[in-house]
Amino acid sequence: MTLSLDAAETIGLHAVAWLAANDELFPVFMGSSGASEADVRANLQDPEFQASVLDFLLMDDAWVIGFCDAQNIPYESVMQARAVLPGGGQVHWT
Q1: Which InterPro entries does the record match to this protein (predicted)?
Q2: Triad 10, 85, 17: Cα angle to 5°
Q3: What is the average per-residue pLDDT within 25-47?
Q4: Could you tell me if 81 and 8 are in contact, meaning their C-beta atoms sit under 8 angstroms apart?
């Protein structure tokens, strides 16, 4: 199933909000991305920033599970949303 851009952006926005509310994981994201709290607030609606948050979550299955369980969405939704947001197209190396 392919998500619409609107659906992907909604998942991305929810991912940013979920991450910002996670006291243990949010500092890890800020440290690894170099983003500040002001950057997060300023870029909430930016699909490229949302994509970076989804990229971060996709680094650990436990993070994906935690987010998806909190949002009551299928686990594969994170990868589907990431594929729709900017930079998410499949790379063909051949």
Answers
A1: DUF3572
A2: 35
A3: 93
A4: yes
